[in-house]
Amino acid sequence: MIPLVDVMLVLLVIVLTTATFITTGQIPVNLAKAKEAGDHKDAPIVITLDAEGHVFVNDRPVAGEGLADTLRLESRASAVVVRADKTTLLEKFVSVVDDVRGLGFQHVSLEVVRL
Q: In this structure, which topology does domain 27-114 adopt according to CATH?
């Protein structure tokens, strides 16, 4: 009976760990906090900047200056959400937002954690 309980506990830990990983996303980002945060109902284009300055579009890595090439095929009416780690350099963040706005996207927002 005891080995069965041990196996069940291990399976429970695996399931809980996997469920947490899936809901938080694949790229660990420590988001900034804000009192006001908007809620989006449609599926936006998600651009993620991690702590090391790497850029991801919808959880796929973008190399160097490939952000513009990646976004050229997207509709300009799509909402764009930028998820930036709070330790990301401001210059890198501004550069990414400037590139997105320069491509004609008008609905650009920053994802934060509500206080």
A: Nucleotidyltransferase; domain 5 (3.30.420)
